[in-house]
Amino acid sequence: MDQKSGKISVVDTHAHLDFENFNSDRDAVIKNARLANVAAIINIGINLETIKKSIALAESHDFIYATAGIHPHDANEMKSDQWDEFIELLRHPNIVAIGEIGLDYYRDYSPHDVQKKILERQLELAVEHDLPVVVHTRNAWQDVMPIFTEQYRGKLKGVFHCFSGLESEAKAVLDAGYFISFTGVVTFKNANALNIAAHYVPLDRLLLETDCPFMAPEPFRGKRCEPAHVPYIAKKIAEARGMDLAELAKQTNQNVEKLFGIKII
Question: Which residues of the chain have pLDDT under 70?
Fold first, then answer.
């Protein structure tokens, strides 16, 4: 709740405002987010270029934060002599997490062994720098989960973003102590993600995100997604859980504060 206005505020924990999809109207999109009572946006870095762009956005807007990560799609492009630059970017005061990182065997833009190597290096850095991780996994659950639930169990904190998996997979993530984040997919008809969000994930482990420009919620499905859409995601989950929207917003904002160490006003 925004105490000044009395309006319900929410946080978009996963956005890609630096993508070219927003080149023509980025400032307007950011303004729209504010008008929609989006209290904070975490812009996600997926390679060195986008990390720098995310930091620039954070420096220009006091409610935008940045992350630094090498996405599995970009793993093959990361060279050994670039890690010093990556580590220097990690030290920027606006960086609140390492991510998004993980494994993606659907697109297979990078060889699996390279993806694993790049992921492992970033997990080492997350532990070293005491930063949470933002995890991406697609068609790679069998390789991802042992890393997070066994090898690094108790050593990391983080969130599995854009969750649309099975109840058993949600259980493994929750049992290992991680948060789970949901996108506009929960508004789609017969969405399994909504069932998981509504009936399985404890409220104190739930986060909201758009993953914009992708996966716009109803009634914007098929169009470009943006942070101003996150209230629609919150409303759908609150309805499915049979709870007050203000309560859901308050708790998910507190979850953001706990995981990322930022103050939501």
Answer: 1-6
